[in-house]
Amino acid sequence: MAKIAVLPGDGIGVEIVEQALRVLRALDLPLEMQTALVGGAAYEAHGHPLPDSTLALAKAADAVLFGAVGDFDFDHLERHLRPEQAILGLRKHLGLFANFRPALCYEQLMHASSLKPELVAGLDILIIRELTGDIYFGQPRGRRTAVDGHFPGAEEAFDTMRYSRPEIERIAHVAFQAARKRNRKVTSVDKANVLETFQFWKDVVTEVHAQYPDVELEHMYVDNAAMQLVRAPKKFDVVVTGNMFGDILSDEAAMLTGSIGMLPSASLDAHNKGLYEPSHGSAPDIAGQDLANPLATILSAAMMLRFTLQQAEAADRIERSVRAVLSAGLRTADIWSEGTTKVGTRAMGDAVVAAITGKTITKS
Fold it and tell me: How much is the pTM?
């Protein structure tokens, strides 16, 4: 029996994870699911966003289903105690170095995209973000009094961008292997014209590419990549990049699909153990109001079944059910348009469960 650590987190995390769990239970699979606190909720209960008990549960599980963390009420805390540190801690302690963020534009949602329908029709991009290196984790970092630069003696802050060869090699292998299952094209995004770190990135990715002659490789500066994502997004297949660039570009790509509320993600280790979460945040301003879109979390559960639990047929059932619900015209507020039916978080979960179990999808 597969063990799933369920970490709902803060804000809308509790609501959307609840719907994903209902969908998983509807599949009637042998899953043992245990819930624990994380983020702000964990800080309030235990004084830390990632308590030892929660981390132990995540380590013992086969996969982690994660909601979202963060709340403005915790912004006054020291950085290491803020809710967002929980997800960084999980990535570090679980060795989750490869983040998969698919940007898929459903036919039913073409008109919800910020771009013209003809630019996003059939869009299917996979952004692979290196997750445990780069400026987010590089040392040294902090604040100090400047001894040189333009303003000696002034207070300054600094972070360190760094990547080692093994870190780049392993994420490059992940990208090329993923491309072999798709359209055999990888775009490596860097800033090699300015940053030594990303000249090194470019060199190493090029070396790894020699092992994948059947896959096309192109290099693109991050500013150009940001522009091309809104100019001609369908030119991309697999995009691989560092932690910070991937963070930014994946959110940009989300809006091509109509809403970040539709985008699942998977963060994997070297053995395909993963943490699965929606790409969006905790949205505390709408928490508890039955407004959040649970589909990204439900689709993250499908990714969990496919990548970690080797339950591809069950994953297909979830994805087909989501398409069926969209075809039936049901929409949460973030993807609603005239002529469709606006529903809440719970009703959207009801509809996906109905589709999975073969019942009629209702619009009330």
Answer: 0.89
- Evaluate whether 230 touches 60 at the Cβ level (below 8 Å): no
- Identity at 202, one-letter amino acid code: K
Catalytic-role residue among 191, 202, 276, 334: 191
* Sequence-ordered list of residues with C-beta below 8 angstroms from that of 5, at least 6 positions apart, any chain: 34, 36, 57, 58, 60, 61, 63, 64, 65
Distance in angstroms (rounded) separating the CA atoms of residues 164 and 92: 16
Paired sense of beta strands 274-278 and 63-68, if any: parallel
Which helix or strand (DSSP H or E) is residue 308 part of? none
**Does the pLDDT at position 1 exceed 70?**
yes
Residue pLDDT, tens place only, 30-54: 999 999 999 999 999 999 999 999 9
For the chain, count helices (H), then strands (E). 12, 14
Catalytic residue at 237? no
- The single-letter DSSP state of residue 77 is S
What pLDDT, in 10s, does the model give residues 322-344?
999 999 999 999 999 888 999 99
> Position 169: which residue type?
E
Q: How many CB atoms lie within 10 A of CB 335?
A: 23
Mean pLDDT of 172-193: 97
Report whether 341 contacts 363 (CB < 8 A): yes
Amino acid at 159: D
Active site annotation includes 136: yes
Residue 134 a catalytic site member: no
Rounded Cα gap, residues 110 and 115, in angstroms: 9
CA distances from 182 to 93, 186, 237, 340 (A): 30, 10, 8, 32
CA–CA gap between residue 127 and residue 114 (Å, rounded): 19
Nearest to 170 by CA among 134, 130, 206: 130
- Of the candidates 28, 73, 203, 223, the residue annotated as catalytic is 223
Set 124, 247, 269, 290: catalytic member: 247
**64 CB-side CA count, 13 A:** 33
Catalytic residue among 92, 124, 136, 185: 136
